[in-house]
Design goal:
The protein is an alpha+beta fold and 404 residues long. The protein is built from 8 helices and 21 strands. β2 and β3 form a beta hairpin. The protein is elongated and about 105 Å long. It binds zinc ion.
């Protein structure tokens, strides 16, 4: 009969330092590992990560339950030999953190169930926050607050947790929050008159040890609410982070933390109307500029030829200006911009008979050759550019020579 490890961590208030005997020196994924006769190390399972710690001089870097009852302690160095007595110590800080998140999850899940009959379908303990998937179709802010408040009132009441070991028959007499499909003995965790759940994890002895239970965010996912939360030390860390972010953001706006959201809202509105106003003014400015460019253009036979090179104007700006120029009278506009080293062109002609023979698309293709780029368009309007803004003068000369 294979060896079944005695789980010391099942006992409330069990010691985190203990002596045990090596039953078997083994390997796990190529690393040395040992099977002990008894252990306080919790193996990964039930959404809770494994404990770590020390086994004599070796670090326990992972704990896995390979098959039921066979708990392997994976070590960072060669295993002690079979039969040896070893001194073990579970990392208390990591354990306390896991205990807070896990016990907090029992309390929070029970709160959702009690208030809204919403069952918890999944639990994951992350590195920062943990998550539960709750069958709550309508997770309004009010409901979330209500569950969070009930959970914290259970913490503040510092209720005792009890472990009941029952058989299937005994389990039917307990008001279990969820049924277990395990055969044989069942371990039921009771939070004093509030909740009964079958569970093999590590728990606090009293709810006060869990500390604050804080819900960080809620997302809807397939008729479920995915609730992220943090308990105890993590809730404090989460509060500090959230507060720091809020205070630093408020400082950027030279205001206090609580005044920042309405102020930022007002500034965003203001920004929107300023942008609108800038667009209107740009339209007016380009109209004026377009007329001036037209008037300064070279007089040809029945039309004006306007050739201009600009610095740092985006493509849509020179395109708008080209429109305004050709709207001012019979004309051809050949505009270029050195936009941060990139060449941009906007060529246009008016709808007048005097320029009906000008093909802006053909002019643009010739211009693009000189700046290492490509482009094309219609006879009345063409846009394009290339990576070599140094070629703009040659490009404009090439296009100009084609306008008869
Ligand atoms: Zn549990």
């Amino acid at each position: 009969m294979p060896h079944v490890t005695e789980r010391l961590y099942f006992e409330p208030g069990h010691a985190l330092t203990f002596r045990a005997r090596v039953v078997e020196a083994a390997t796990h994924d190529g690393r040395p590992a040992v099977l002990l006769d008894r252990t306080s190390f919790y193996p990964t399972g039930g959404g809770q990560p494994n404990d770590t710690g020390r086994l004599d001089d070796a670090r326990v870097i992972d704990v896995v339950e390979e098959v039921e009852g066979r708990i392997l302690h994976v070590l960072d160095r060669a295993s002690p030999a079979d039969g040896r007595e070893v001194d073990c110590e579970v990392d208390a800080v990591r354990r306390c953190d896991h205990m807070q998140q896990h016990t907090g999850q029992h309390i929070l899940s029970a709160a959702f169930e009690r208030l809204f009959d919403a069952e918890t379908k999944g639990f994951r303990m992350g590195a920062g926050t943990s998550e539960i998937d709750v069958e709550l179709e309508d997770p309004t802010g009010e409901r979330i607050c209500e569950a969070e408040s009930l959970a914290n009132s259970i913490v503040f009441s510092d209720l005792a947790l009890r472990v009941h070991t029952v058989d299937r028959e005994g389990a039917t007499r307990l008001p279990l929050r969820k049924q277990s499909d395990r055969d044989g003995e069942l371990r039921v965790i009771e939070i004093d008159g509030f909740d009964w759940s079958p569970c093999g994890g590590t728990h606090a002895q009293r709810t006060g040890e869990v500390g604050l239970i804080a819900i960080a965010s809620v997302e809807r996912a397939k008729r479920m609410a995915r609730v992220s939360f943090a308990c105890g030390g993590r809730a404090l860390a989460e509060y500090r982070r959230a507060n720091r972010t809020a205070v630093e953001t408020a400082r950027l706006f030279s205001t206090g933390r609580d005044d920042a959201p309405p102020l930022v809202g007002r500034l965003m509105e203001e920004n929107k109307s300023l942008k609108r106003r800038v667009r209107e003014l740009a339209e007016i400015a380009s109209e004026v500029e377009g007329r001036r460019c037209f008037e300064a253009g070279e007089q040809r036979d029945g039309f004006r030829l306007v050739v201009c090179e600009f610095s740092d104007r985006p493509a849509d700006e020179i395109r708008l200006l080209a429109h305004k120029i050709v709207a001012s009278g019979p004309s051809v506009a050949l505009l270029a911009s050195n936009d941060g080293g990139v060449a941009r062109f906007a060529f246009a002609r008016s709808a007048s008979d005097s320029v009906a023979g000008v093909d802006c698309g053909a002019l643009l293709r010739a211009a693009c050759d000189a700046v290492g780029g490509r482009g094309g368009g219609k006879p009345e309007l063409a846009q394009g550019g290339g990576p070599d803004a140094g070629g703009i003068p040659a490009a404009l000369d090439a296009a100009r020579s084609m306008v008869k």
